[in-house]
Each structure stands twice: as C-alpha cells, then as structure tokens.
Amino acid sequence: MDTEQLKTFVEVVRLGSFAAVAREFSTDPSAVTRSIAALEKSLGVRLLERTTRRLALTKAGAAYHESVRGLLKDLQRATDEARDLAGQPEGVVRVTASVSYGYSVLVPMLTALRKAYPKLEIDLRLTDSIIDLVAERVDVALRLRQAADSSLVGVRLARIRYHVCASPAYLKQHGAPLTPADLVTHDCLRCPVPGYSAQWRFRDALGMIDGIDIHGRLTMSNSLALQRAAQEGLGPALLPDWLVGADLAAGRLIDLFPRHEATPTDFDNAIWLLHTSRSYIPHRVRAFLDFIKRQYAENLRARAA
User: Fold this and answer.
1) Mind listing the pLDDT tens digit for each residue in 218-252?
2) Which of 65, 129, 145, 165 has the smallest number of Cβ neighbours within 10 A?
3) Do 275 and 153 contact (CB within 8 A), yes or no?
4) What's the start-to-end Cα distance of the chain, in Å?
5) H helices within 175-255, ranges in order?
C-alpha cells in the first residue's frame, strides 16, 4: 500500500477538503483528488462521499480511517525509533506559540538551535489561538498560561512579570502617575482579550492587592502592537518582561510602578513548555525540549550573576 496515499486520506479527513490538504502540502488539488481516487480504486470501495459543500466518510471509510490513522502513528514511531538509534536528532519538530512570544523570544533562539542540531527542521506555527496539539499534529507548544488539558505534559519554564510602562516622551507631556490609582486619568493602551482590558491588578510590598479600572481610546489585539504604541508615546501599557525587558534596560520605556507587581489576570503568570506524549518522546522532540530548557536555565543564571 502506498503510504503517501494513506497520509493524504488521513489529512483530507482531518482538514475536511482536498483544497485544504493541497495548501498544507503545497501541491495542486488535482493531485490530492488523484491520490484519493487511486486509493479507493485499489481498495475497491468508496471512502468519501463528495458534495459541492462538504466531504463525508462512508461507513467503510470511517472504519478504514480509524485503522489507518493508528497504522500511520505506529509507522511514525518506528521511523523515530530508527532515527534515534543513529544518534544525531533529525526530522521535523512542529512548534506552536503566540505571535508576540514567537517573534520576540523563539525566533532569536533559532540560530543557536541550528548550530546545536543542524539536522532538525522546525515548523513554527505562530498563532494567538489555542490549538489542539493532537488534532493538528503539533509536537510542542509554548504558552503563557498552564494548559487546562490534562493530557498534555507541562514544564514551568519561568515566571512572567508584567510592567505598566510608558515612553519618556509620554511622561514628559502628560506627567507620570504617582500611584496605580492615578491611571484612571490616563489614556491607557488596552488589549481586547477577555480579562485584560477592563482592569489591571496591583500588589504592593505588603501584599495588598488593588484592582484599577483602566480606560483608553486605543485597543490592540497584539502585544507587539501595544509595545510599539507605548514606544511611540501613545499611552501606558501593561506588558510582560519577556517583551519589554530590553526596552526598560535601554530607557525606551519606563516602569511606572517598580515597587508593585502588576498583572492583567492573576499573579501566577508563567511560560509553560508543553508536549503530548507521556511515554515515548522522539529524539527530535526531546532535543528541542531540552534546548529550550537549557536556554531558560542559562538566562536565569545570567540574571542572577
């Protein structure tokens, strides 16, 4: 049996259309159609019912899909195990992260990753949506909150600290708020994510927590855009240390309340490294996981020095 035909069939079922599979594999939709037709001809049964609006599995197709999906997983594991015996990790590692985190943190790490593991291929999928790792065949996720999915294995990489920051130009024109409560008179930069836009929370050195209702005429759905807007003097923004650490060190942005902890949600924010398997982890995935852990451990040692 042609395994490429089997993979195509499983992907058609997963994505729901020939066109989507063609886009996924950068091929022509007619090639996908021919592959499915050849598979059905070799089996002598129809696997998919096609209409102008959708595809649906036949009864035979549903049973075949269930078996083939497991077969392909076993085949991939056998391939990974064989490669692992060769020593040097190689193959594709599919990774997902938010757009801002991926751009600001992960992409700058790729040069060192390539030097450490030259045979690894990284498929980096940046999205602010929480995707299903199993359904989308993604190996690793880096997320800014702990996963609610108990099937995922998670490692807490680092705590996230948020800063309310503004540019020197903004503070020169509008004055600096002396306390978090003073933010009610400022045109703050907001994020439309639920729980982020209406109130910022602060905790002082004594552990007292106060929620401040914030207002502003500019709302942006992306942290990179909020960072740029703050740099341009458009208002105070609540941003994470992994994004604005260099800005604060260089003086491009000023931490308005360095004696307070700030958060858009709760005070236990952290960066989590997640993967799916609890038993066998392919060498290629394990190499990526270990690399990310080393990078964070080195960063923590550098800060402590």
Assistant:
1) 999 899 999 999 999 999 999 999 999 999 999 99
2) 129
3) yes
4) 59
5) 223-231, 241-250
User: In angstroms, rounded to a whole number, what is the distance separating the alpha carbons of residues 35 and 203?
Assistant: 60
Dihedral-angle region of residue 175 (phi above 0 means left; psi in -120 to 50 means alpha; beta otherwise): left
Q: 262-285 in b/e burial notation, b at 16+ Cβ within 10 A?
A: bbbbeeebebbbbbbeeeebbbbb
Q: Rg of the Cα trace of the chain?
A: 24
Q: Look at residue 200 and give its three-state secondary structure.
A: strand
Structure tokens at 135: 């359904």
Element (H, E) at 160: none
User: Are 124 and 97 a contacting pair, CB within 8 Å?
Assistant: yes
Residue type, 113: L
d(CA 216, CA 213): 10
Cα–Cα distance between 48 and 61 in angstroms, integer?
6
Measured CA distances, 274 to 94, 114, 131 (Å)? 12, 21, 12
Q: Tell me the three state secondary structure of residue 43.
A: helix
Q: How far apart are CA 272 and CA 274, in angstroms?
A: 6
Cβ atoms of 57 and 69 within 8 Å: the answer is: no
Distance CA 180, CA 258 (A): 11
> Distances in Å between the alpha carbon of 242 and those of 7, 113, 214, 229?
39, 19, 23, 17
- Please tell me the pTM assigned to this model: 0.75
Provide the Cα torsion 22, 23, 28, 34; round to 10°.
0
Most distant CA pair in the chain, distance: 77
Q: What is the pLDDT of residues 131-170, one digit of tens each?
A: 888 878 899 999 987 766 667 888 899 999 999 999 999 9
The two tokens of residue 215 are 């207002």
